[in-house]
Amino acid sequence: MDESILNRLNVLVKKTYYTYDRFEVDATFALLYHAVPLSVVELSKYVRLSDHLMQLDEHHYFIIFAFTCEENAYKASQNIIHKLDGYLNDHSTCIAMDSLDPTKSPQHVLNRLKQIMSEIHRDAHVRIETEDILHR
Fold first, then answer.
1. How far is CA 61 from the centre of its chain?
2. Buried-state track 64-74, b at ≥16 Cβ within 10 A, e below 16
3. Whether the Cβ atoms of residue 112 and residue 98 lie closer than 8 Å to each other
4. Rounded CA gap, 32 and 20, in Å?
5. pLDDT tens per residue, range 91-105
6. What pLDDT shows up at residue 136?
7. How confident is the model at residue 111 (pLDDT cuts 50, 70, 90)?
8. 11, 40, 87 from 43: Cα distances, Å
């Protein structure tokens, strides 16, 4: 992954931690995968305006569901997948989610999301998963 992308991800995660520490505002991190490359502009039509969206590569996108606990981020993820399925007539979208924990480094957040995504890809029926899958 390009160093500039990692630097931007670091800034976004640290900014989210700061907002949480300072204002006690919750957030949830997510990694979206889609088999067909999508532009950020195209994908942003399906992500809430208050959330942060960043393209990592042609298939992966980092999302911060701002002001959102994991339960509500799960529902937002369902909505994204439902809308993308209808728009693209494709069912390859899946989302890995990790709850906010300021003790985790930005690199650790990304690594956990990648682990969760790996677990999702093992089961064709799973499209959204949380960090709970790492403890099963």
1. 7
2. bbbebebeebb
3. yes
4. 23
5. 999 999 999 999 999
6. 76
7. very high
8. 21, 5, 11
Residue 117 tokens read as 């995504």
pLDDT for the residue numbered 16: 98
Q: Which of 78, 62, 51 is nearest to 5 (CA)?
A: 62
DSSP state of 129: E
DSSP code, position 50:
T
Q: Read off the tokens for 13.
A: 């995660």
Distance from C-alpha of 88 to C-alpha of 83, rounded to nearest angstrom = 9
Please report, as a single letter, which amino acid is at residue 24. E
Single out the residue of 128, 134, 35 nearest to residue 75, CA to CA.
128
* pLDDT value of position 53: 97
